[in-house]
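Task: sequence in, structure out. Protein: L,D-transpeptidase.
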Amino acid sequence: MTPLIRTSLHLMTMVSALALCMPAATAQDQFRRPSQQTILVTPQGDILDYVPEAGEVTIRQDGRGRRVLIDHYGNVVATEMRADRYFARMQQEQQNGSYDSYGEDGGFDARDPGAVTGSVEPGAVTRQPLDDQAMPPALDENGFPAAPDGPDTLAALPAPSMHEDPITKEPVFKLNGKSKPEILALQVFLDRQGVSPGVIDGHMGSNVTKSILAYEQMTGEKLDPNDTDYILEQLRLSGGLAITHYEITPADAAGPYVAEIPDDYSQKALLPSLAYTSTAEMLAERFHMDENFLRELNPGVDFTIPGTIIKVVNPGQPKKGEVARIIADKGRKQVLAYDNGGNLVAAYPASIGSSDTPSPSGIVTVERVALNPGYTYNPKINFQQGGNDKILNIPPGPNGPVGTVWMALSKPTYGIHGTPEPSKIGRTQSHGCIRLTNWDATELAKMTKPGVTVEFMD
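Result:
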């Protein structure tokens, strides 16, 4: 690489970093204490918004005696912390006007597991809520091991490195002190290559690790996530920097939008559509972003005003081609799409089944593909939701139970579909179906025709 190119790349890195170095988002004025004595906190400082199944994580202890949850790729999923200490520290940081390793809005209570797809009748889609899976018992009768005072550390936890994971037999990647802009650049690079990292948020996680492995399978080349110079050069060649500017149009601001998405299905059925609830939510999905990250990039911005210039991720163009075979890898929580020649066309993080409602095994086929599908609630074949005892026809929309896509499979009641909660893809479980982000599900649907095989791998 010539000195000129290298200098330009370092300048590009500085520009990206400056674009992201903005004031922290305002934290909530009041912090709610959860009823349990302990909580699970992500490396970004947020309260983990789902409970992993026992088989999904390995539990170890850090230097303070706290339980640490690690996924099969070597990534720290969450650390168990005393709820009183967590919220007390968040209150102190709010009063001091600083937000450190516990995140910028880490005081919110995000334990809602959401709802996921249930079963399907011919021509109709139904939905059931997700039952949380219990974690293994705590180390003592209080659910929390005694921890000495002192700085937070992972001294007793082996740091993930470029080695083979003993469970998955796949490489584990460690980032060497990479900044948020550099991780963002890696996510956008992977997105443009057709190996989706899920929502783009500037954080390293298992979805990014899975997309790196898919990139290597697709290209036959090893990718070093620490080689920022290479990643920035590839971004330059494939459409420019990871962040670009966008002007909000009158159509963007006009919607239509709905004020909120009610929980009760009878109220859902009365809405004209299950549309986005805000311009920010719509733009976040359009640019493959986490909505909170969009707001972080644009502090104080009113997204309802046409003509406003905002910063957004510059994602890749939708993949094109013809998919002949789909693999739903349950262990990796990833969907792999291949063409007639056996070449990997695209890869997507996914939520696939759970222990109580597992996905099928073996090979099925795609029977039909529906974009922007409606939703039918039938209490006789599913569950009792509130006081509803009649069949309800729930309108379509991106915030519908199956998002923007329904790909019916030959196994009755199963399908591939989108989701109203893209940030949970690859982390929560579904009720047997295959859940993708709306943009990934739409991309896959447009490359897939009835008759394509779908193989569930255990």
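The mean pLDDT is 75.
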